[in-house]
């Protein structure tokens, strides 16, 4: 498995509106997407785009708020009521190949491969198999290859 680009850091929040205000007013972020619902993932999402430097793409911060009471991040927020870093996401060129490699190494892939907030296939790897970090693996869009 070759490490791809860090695409984003997922931050669970009880309120996307409050988190947007924090990143805008405290951190000076000016490029923040409008929140949108991903009911199939159980979350509301928006992205804080960090600036590019020295020709390198900026990394995104993905703000995720529970969509409803069945959201998979409700458990995280119950343990961390103020929210916090939820996952990291790395890019791969071929999601099926990456999944097979992780499974071949005995890593626990959580659930089926599905379409993520960027509109490309994703899967998650259990934090106990990834040095304590829930890790999202995301296929780069075909235009990014």
Let me know the largest β-sheet. Answer: 8 strands, mixed
Q: How do the strands of the widest beta sheet line up side by side?
A: 2-3-4-1-5-8-7-6
State the helical fraction.
10-25%
The CATH architecture can be named as Roll
CATH topology grouping: 2,3-Dihydroxybiphenyl 1,2-Dioxygenase, domain 1
The CATH class name reads: Alpha Beta
CATH superfamily: 2,3-Dihydroxybiphenyl 1,2-Dioxygenase, domain 1
User: How would the global form be characterised?
Assistant: globular
Number of domains: 1
Radius of gyration: 15 Å
Please count the helical segments: 3
**β-strand amount:** 25-35%
Instruction: Tell me the series of helices and strands, N- to C-terminal.
Output: EHEEEHEHEEE
Q: Structural class of the secondary elements? A: alpha+beta
Keywords: Isomerase, Metal-binding
EC number: 5.1.99.1
Enzyme class: isomerase
GO molecular function, one term: metal ion binding
Keywords:
single chain; 145 residues; alpha+beta; 2,3-Dihydroxybiphenyl 1,2-Dioxygenase, domain 1; eight-stranded mixed sheet; 3 helices; 18% helix; 34% strand; metal-binding; MMCE/EMCE_epimerase; MeMalonyl-CoA_epimerase; isomerase; methylmalonyl-CoA epimerase activity
Structure description:
The chain has 145 residues and is an alpha+beta fold. The chain has a single domain, classed as 2,3-Dihydroxybiphenyl 1,2-Dioxygenase, domain 1, CATH 3.10.180. 18% of the residues lie in helices and 34% in strands. It has 3 helices and 8 strands; from the N terminus they run βαβββαβαβββ. It has an 8-stranded mixed β-sheet with strand order 2-3-4-1-5-8-7-6. The longest helix is centred in the N-terminal third of the chain and has 10 residues, at 16-25. The chain is globular. The mean pLDDT is 93. Pfam families: Glyoxalase_4. One of its GO terms (molecular function) is methylmalonyl-CoA epimerase activity. Keywords: Isomerase, Metal-binding. Its EC number is 5.1.99.1.
């Amino acid at each position: 498995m070759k490490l791809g680009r860090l695409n984003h850091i997922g931050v669970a929040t009880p309120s996307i509106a409050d988190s947007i205000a924090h990143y805008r007013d405290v951190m000076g972020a000016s490029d923040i997407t409008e929140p949108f619902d991903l009911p199939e993932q159980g979350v509301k999402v928006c992205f804080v785009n960090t600036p590019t430097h020295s020709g390198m793409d900026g990394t995104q911060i993905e703000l995720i708020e529970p969509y409803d009471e069945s959201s998979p991040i409700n458990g995280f927020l119950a343990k961390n009521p103020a929210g916090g870093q939820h996952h990291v996401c790395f890019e791969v060129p071929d999601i099926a190949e990456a999944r097979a490699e992780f499974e071949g190494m005995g890593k626990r892939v959580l659930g089926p491969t599905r379409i993520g907030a960027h509109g490309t296939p994703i899967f998650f790897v259990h934090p106990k198999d990834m040095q304590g970090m829930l890790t999202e693996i995301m296929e780069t869009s075909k235009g990014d290859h």
